[in-house]
Design a protein that fits this description.
Blueprint lengths: L2 H6 L3 H6 L7 H12 L2 E7 L12 E6 L5 H9 L17 E6 L3 E5 L10 H17 L3 E9 L9 H10 L3 E6 L6 H15 L10 E2 L8 H9 L9 H8 L1
Helix pairs in contact: 3-8
The chain binds guanosine-5'-triphosphate and magnesium ion.
Magnesium ion binds next to helix 4.
Length: 243
C-alpha cells in the first residue's frame, strides 16, 4: 500500500521531526520477510501465572482502549482476524501472545483508560499490565500507541512514567492516520515529540501508521524485525559450514 510514499507527503517540517524517514532497504526487506511468515496465536493470559514462559524476543503493544492495538497486530501480520478487534473499547481483556514465524512474539495488551469499564476490572488489567512490563525479561520493545486524532492524553502519562521507571524501551506509534489531515498529523506529532523530551526510555523516532490503509507498516515491520531471533542457518549453509 501507499506506505513510505505517503509518509513522504508530509511537509518538510514534519519530516524534520521524524528522522530517519527511509529505513535501510535491507531492514525493510528483512521486516517484510519476517512478517510474511506464518503468524499464530500462542496464549492468552488473564493473570501472571498464565503467561507463557518467555522464550523468543517480545514486542508489546500498549495504549488506551480502542487506540487500535489489536488492529495493528493484525495489519502487521497481514491477517484480519488474528487478534480480535471491536468498535467498543475494552475488547482485549487478556495479554494475548502471537508468534511471528517462530522468530518474534507480539503481545497485544489490554487497553487502559476505558471509562465504562468496571473499576475492579480496570484495576485488574492495570495490575496485569504493570506486572508484565515490570517483569518480562524477553520484552525488547513496547510500542505505545497514540491515536493521531487525539495525541497524548492524561491517562497515557502514568504509563510513560512507568516505562521510564522500569527501563522498558518504548516507542510511540501514532495510529489511525487515515482519519487525520496532514497539518493535524504535524501538530499531534509535534505535541507527542515535545511530550517525549522528558522521558529517557522513549525512543525518539515516532512511527506514523494506519492499519486501515497500510501507511507506515513497512517501516514498523523493519524496526520490529531487528528484534527477531536470527534465522537458523539453512541446510545448505549448515552443510557448507561442515565442509
Ligand atoms: N480508521 C481506522 N480505524 C482503525 C484503525 N485501527 C483500528 N481502527 C478501529 O478502531 C477500533 C478499535 O480497534 P482495536 O484494534 O480493537 O483497538 P484496541 O486498542 O485493541 O482496543 P482494546 O482491545 O479495547 O484496548 C475498531 O473499530 C477498529 O476498526 C486505523 O488505522 N484506521
Ligand atoms: Mg484490543
Amino acid at each position: 500500500m501507499g506506505d513510505l510514499s505517503s509518509e513522504r507527503r508530509l511537509s518538510a517540517d514534519a519530516a524534520a521531526l521524524f528522522p530517519p524517514q527511509d529505513p535501510d532497504p535491507a531492514a525493510l526487506e528483512a521486516g517484510r520477510r519476517l512478517f510474511a511468515r506464518e503468524a499464530r496465536f500462542l496464549a492468552a493470559a488473564a493473570e501472571p501465572a498464565a503467561m507463557p514462559p518467555g522464550g523468543l524476543p517480545e514486542v508489546a503493544f500498549a495504549g488506551r482502549s480502542n487506540v487500535g492495538k489489536s488492529s495493528l497486530v493484525n495489519a502487521l501480520c497481514g491477517r484480519s482476524m488474528l487478534a480480535r478487534t471491536s468498535k467498543e473499547p475494552g475488547r482485549t481483556r487478556t495479554l494475548n501472545f502471537f508468534s511471528v514465524g517462530g522468530r518474534l512474539v507480539l503481545v497485544d495488551l489490554p487497553g487502559y483508560g476505558h471509562a465504562e469499564a468496571a473499576k475492579s476490572a480496570a484495576a485488574r488489567w492495570n495490575r496485569l499490565l504493570r506486572h508484565y512490563l515490570e517483569t518480562r525479561a524477553v520484552l525488547r520493545r513496547t510500542c505505545l500507541l497514540i491515536d493521531a486524532r487525539h495525541g497524548v492524553k492524561e491517562t497515557d502519562r502514568p504509563f510513560l512514567r512507568l516505562f521510564d521507571a522500569c527501563g522498558v524501551s518504548y516507542q510511540i506509534v501514532l495510529t489511525k492516520l487515515d482519519k487525520v489531515r496532514a497539518p493535524e498529523i504535524e501538530a499531534v506529532a509535534r505535541q507527542t515529540a515535545a511530550e517525549l523530551a522528558g522521558h529517557p526510555a522513549a525512543h525518539p523516532h515516532i512511527h506514523l501508521t494506519s492499519a486501515r490503509d497500510g501507511r507506515g507498516l513497512a517501516a514498523l515491520r523493519a524496526a520490529l524485525g531487528s528484534f527477531a531471533e536470527a534465522s537458523p542457518p539453512c541446510a545448505l549453509a549448515r552443510s557448507a559450514l561442515r565442509g
